[in-house]
Amino acid sequence: MSTRTASSSARRPRSRGGPTRAQALRRRLLLVLTVVVAAAGSALLLAPWADEAVQEVVTLPLRHEDIIRQQAHDKDLDPALIAGVIFAESHFRDQTSHAGAKGLMQLMPDTADFIAQKSGGIAFRQQDLATPQVNIAYGSWYLRYLLDRYDGSEPLALAAYNAGHGTVDGWLADAAANDREFKVADIPYPETRAYVSKVLDARRDYRREYADELGI
What we know:
Radius of gyration: 28 Å
Number of helices: 11
Oligomer: single chain
Helix content: 55-70%
């Protein structure tokens, strides 16, 4: 296309009063280059703030911190642990997984029904899990339940959050039957081992980066 345009221009006489097409093109290119350079300079000046924004929004997002603080207080939990679970489960996006887990803390329908029954949520409906307040409240209740079930062991509670407490109970029973202590390295599911590490790493990062927002 550019070849046809250039050939056509060669056949036309140049107007004497104005710039040629090549001159106009060069001016446009110069204008674009000026805008790009100016934008690059602004980016350099704003780099510290830009880096922080990218980290918060993309790498380590945080939303609904008021709900997280409230639920952490009500359930006697580390708010950074709740944030770490949400990060690992949904990256703070309200979504439904292929397996049917719902919302920010990715609760399975049967788990949500169990929580509602145990916590007295008689008016609970599955669609309520799309509400951040309900989803985080139910997920936080379940975290507290699992921590109590495993004597405060965060790795075991997180493994149960990912794989189910019945599965973790089975692992512990097998270890006891063989007269050995069950450790995180003994988790037979690679996905669950990685999940436990991911949540604990995220909890550390949230405590460092969002201490004020989470009230830590």
